[in-house]
Amino acid sequence: MALSMTEPTGTASQAGLDHDAIVIGAGMSGMYQLIRLRQLGLRVRVFEAGTGVGGTWYWNRYPGARFDSESYSYGYSFDPELLQDWSWSEHFAPQPETLRYLNHVADKYDLRRDIQFEARVASAHYQDATRSWTVTLEDGSRHSSRFLITAIGVLSAPTLPRIEGIDSFQGQSWHTARWPKEGVDFTGKRVAVIGTGATGVQTIQEVAKTAGHLTVFQRTPNWCAPLHNRPITEEEQRQIKASYPEIFRRCQETFSCFLHTADPRGTFEVTKEEREAFYEQLYASPGFGIWVGNFKDMLTDRAANKEISDFAARKIRERVKDPKVAEMLIPTNHGFGTRRLPLETRYYEVYNQPNVLLVDSKATPIERITPTGIRTSAAEYEFDIIIYATGFDALTGAFDRIDLRGADGLRLKEAWAGGARTFMGMMVEGFPNMLMLLGPHTALGNIPRSIEYNVDWVTALLRHMQAKGLTRVAARPEAVRAWTEHVMSCAEGLLTFEVDSWMTGVNRNVEGKQTRTVARYAGSAPAYRAWCDEVAGGGYRELVLD
């Protein structure tokens, strides 16, 4: 193994604490943070609600779940040996393969000995007197540590729709993020899918292959683009493994850490013919190029956005045979790319099948779930299976579900009542020694690239504190204010922030989240890293270290 590991030599026992650090979550960020904290010699415990590692890829087992980042740009990059001993089978890997990969990582670095599974965190309270955190699990057990590190993900708190009668249904039903491990057989079954976001799109195109009849309840259509996935050939595999340094260098350079970045031209700097040819090229290319590799003004100029929206609408009309159904699938309340863009494989063709029905649940709202199915304002439908592809309480939702209290008993949910306020998305004013790996206001995009940077930044901070004999770190109020103002300024002029979506903090299924907020950092990943690097390079002046 290329990485050296250090046996725990932390100061937890001398301080009367159980651990030096507690990490919440054993997904990609929690696993990597465990590796790095071990290298510091710290005594670490990871608490994971599931029965295995994987986070997102453990919980989301629904049919069709897969990457929309290129596989070889998504995995960990920290160990050259790991890069060479794992081979991705497809350009966009399916969930089962990704989970196998993460279990391989857990085996390779012997991570499970420091992870407690089936351990859901109920509360975490900062103790002013001891400068430590007390973490209580749902089973009532209590654990103390100097540092609390949250690795709970931006899309990890599933939400069900606020519809009466959900518990009355006598058939089978699941939220996509709580899918049964044994899988589901749809053959000959009457199936309903509620929701047509990214998860719904992936689920629908798979379920339609075998279901006896599929009814899709769509409230808001989303723009989608083809994924163009295919197997990786042996020659491509050799090229990928030889090119990893260049692949990850490219990810470091781009706006959102994908292999794609915006075209330097404006939409109207080229002729109509050139523009159409460019759109066709992007539409025929794999991955997120049509979203993050489009003309530079696509998400800031209304006229430019209308051009690509009109192009995408024409594609839907070409692919869906029934003109009425095609129009139902074309968004009218937001432009192309202003919400998270689902990537699909023959999704639109599903609606050409005689066993598939699309229901507009805005025109004919769902009134209730009945024991035998779903009743709308216009009709009653009977089903054997109901699938809730209704998404997540994003960005802050996983934090809201834990009773998190900082100094003087300050509740995090109250501190964020008017919208999240953070320092670089990794720290919160009034919550000493709490570090967030994927908190609101961190750079998102190709998530593992953000994860590795944030984990390494947190690790460097803790190494600095070790060297100086420091036991407490807190964000200065003026630093939180400056970063939050910067996040707000990055959102100015973006069409994305004029649209209701999880990226603007809106979730109609969650109380108190009906008003748009700047819920995510909209600047570039290189700019985010530059800010964080400047803080570290300047000796952490923005933090109170003692």
What can you tell me about this protein's structure?
- This protein is an alpha/beta fold and 546 residues long.
- Among the domains are: 19-53 and 111-157 and 394-493 and 524-545, FAD/NAD(P)-binding domain (3-Layer(bba) Sandwich), CATH 3.50.50; 225-388, no CATH class.
- Helices cover 31% and strands 16% of the residues.
- It has 17 helices and 20 strands.
- It has helices at residues 28-39, 56-59, 71-74, 80-85, 95-108, 198-207, 234-242, 244-253, 272-283, 289-292, 302-319, 323-328, 397-400, 412-415, 447-468, 477-491, 525-537; strands at residues 19-24, 44-47, 115-116, 121-127, 132-137, 142-150, 172-175, 190-194, 213-218, 225-226, 343-344, 356-360, 366-370, 373-376, 380-382, 385-388, 403-405, 434-436, 473-475, 543-545.
- The strands form 5 sheets. Strands 1, 2, 3, 4, 5, 6, 17 and 18 form an 8-stranded mixed beta sheet that branches. It has a 5-stranded parallel beta sheet with strand order 7-16-8-9-12, with helices on one face. It has a 3-stranded antiparallel beta sheet with strand order 13-14-15, with no helix packed on it.
- Strand 8 (190-194), helix 6 (198-207) and strand 9 (213-218) form a beta-alpha-beta unit.
- Helix 1 (28-39) runs parallel beside helix 15 (447-468) and helix 15 (447-468) runs parallel beside helix 17.
- The longest helix has 22 residues, at 447-468.
- The radius of gyration is 24 Å and the shape is globular.
- The protein starts with 18 loop residues before the first strand and ends with a strand.
- The mean pLDDT is 95.
